[in-house]
Design a protein that fits this description.
194 residues, 7 strands, Rossmann fold, globular, alpha/beta
């Protein structure tokens, strides 16, 4: 792995641990000589992880649609900033530039981004590791929902392994480094394998 895409809230959240872990993740990326790929904002947890990477002498690559420049306040001190037209282009470029994905706490946008890359992994568009930084149990309900969907027959058991979930950035990055994608299985329960 050379580059990690980080999805994160454009707000800092109310728990100080969110900001602390975002900064810790940034330091851990630098220590491992991993470049950051992210949404390009200097706001919220997005800005905290980027600033931590840059303060440590690492590379931070931002990708932002022109229409969000004002709302998210584009980070002007990045190693690289790619301006795109749409959110679809943003996510496609994030995928193309990255060797793995990590989600810090965030809202709708973060949920959508992480589930999109999980869905892409499920159908074989990529085999990159996907991790959730479970700060103070933030992603525990999401993992419970994944387990519930698996038990209900909507997610094949093996594909539950597509998401790595840890509370410590170093442990998560170790697991991502050692990640082996689950064996590709038929995701459609009504089709028989031939």
């Amino acid at each position: 792995m050379k580059r990690i895409c980080v999805f994160a809230g454009s707000n800092p959240g109310v728990n100080p641990a969110f900001e602390q872990i975002a900064q810790e993740l940034g330091r851990e990326l630098v220590a491992r000589e991993l470049d950051l790929v992210y949404g390009g904002s200097n706001m919220g947890l997005m800005g905290r992880v980027a600033n931590s990477v840059l303060a440590g002498g690492g590379k931070a690559i931002g990708i932002m649609p022109t229409g969000l420049f004002r709302g998210e306040i584009v980070h002007t001190g990045l190693t690289e900033l790619h301006e795109v037209t749409t959110m679809h282009e943003r996510k496609a470029m994030m995928n193309d530039l990255s060797d793995g994905f990590i989600a810090l706490p965030g809202g709708y946008g973060t949920f959508e981004e992480i589930f999109e890359v999980v869905s892409w992994g499920q159908i074989g568009i990529h085999t990159k590791p996907i991790g959730l930084l479970n700060v103070d149990g933030y992603y525990t309900p999401l993992m419970e929902m994944v387990n519930h969907a698996t038990a209900a027959g909507f997610i094949p058991v093996m594909q539950g392994e597509l998401i790595l979930c840890e509370s410590d950035p170093a442990v998560l990055l170790d697991k991502m480094r050692d990640y082996t994608p689950p064996v590709k299985t038929n995701k459609w329960s009504e089709l028989t394998e031939k």
